[in-house]
Amino acid sequence: MSHYFENDKNLKSQWQEHKINILNKSYTFITDHGVFSKQGLDFGTRTLIETIPINKISGDVLDLGCGYGPIGITVKDNTNSNVDMIDINLRSLHLARMNASKNNVSVNVFESNGYSNVLKKYDYIITNPPIRVGKKILYDLLFGAKEHLKENGELWLVINKNQGAKSVAKDLEKEYNVEIVKKNKGFYIIMAKVR
After folding, report:
1. Domain range list for the chain
2. With a threshold of 0.90, does the pTM exceed it?
3. In terms of CATH architecture, what is 16-194?
4. Phi, psi of 89 (to 5 degrees)
5. pLDDT digits (tens, 9 = 90+) for 11-46
6. How many CB atoms lie within 10 A of CB 175?
7. Hey, what long-range contacts does 6-10 have (CB within 8 A, 24 or more apart)?
């Protein structure tokens, strides 16, 4: 099984195009083998996009683990923010760039293993985090966000109840002010604010 957070050069490419309505707008996304949710927009990501306070988002936004780009692209299209999109998966980055162009948004897409190539601080970091990487890397991503958030910056994430949403929210409280903003069919939308 090839994971979407690995770069498998042997994985054959087979693009699929999806027309998706988000926030009352129509988007086109190309997906492929070896990227998360290649069948189109997954329920968790949709719930996250529809829950973040899109009308108050501004400044600098980081889409952490952007995949083929639905979070960063919709945020950029609906706000006047500067959006950076990062991933470790080169195929995801290629798709994210294509999808940004296809949806006429200007975003900055670059490769980064976690925050390794992130050089600035953000008002918002938004992520559907890669649960399968294991708890240590997951927590490095979630707690590492603190170093890359501005004062009063917010980390927004989605995680399923069956993947430990409650314990993640509780653990995040050690270093953030945490709010479970929404629960939808087992998916928790969590906002963690820098203290």
Report:
1. 16-194
2. yes
3. 3-Layer(aba) Sandwich (3.40)
4. -90, 115
5. 677 777 889 999 999 999 988 766 766 667 889 999
6. 14
7. 6/89, 7/88, 7/89, 7/90, 7/91, 8/34
